[in-house]
Design goal:
single chain, mainly alpha, 3 helices, about 80% helix
């Protein structure tokens, strides 16, 4: 068993929540700075969700081709 691959695959579980959290934080910060509430929060949260899903799908596809995990 290759523990490096196992660690990479298990880190996929954090991909989506971290991307959403970063989008939320950036949106909140920009809203406070630019006084545009809640627009930046909504936009950056959606961008975080999209980014997280894209990263998650790419990671799953990468390790879906390699069954020796």
């Amino acid at each position: 068993m290759d523990y490096r691959k196992l660690a990479d695959v298990s880190s996929l579980a954090l991909t989506l929540p971290v991307a959403i959290a970063v989008g939320l934080f950036l949106g909140w910060f920009l809203d406070k700075w630019l006084h545009t509430a809640p627009w930046m929060l909504c936009i950056w949260t959606l961008l975080g969700v999209a980014s997280g899903l894209i990263s998650l799908i790419r990671g799953i596809r990468k390790y879906d081709k390699d069954p020796d995990i």
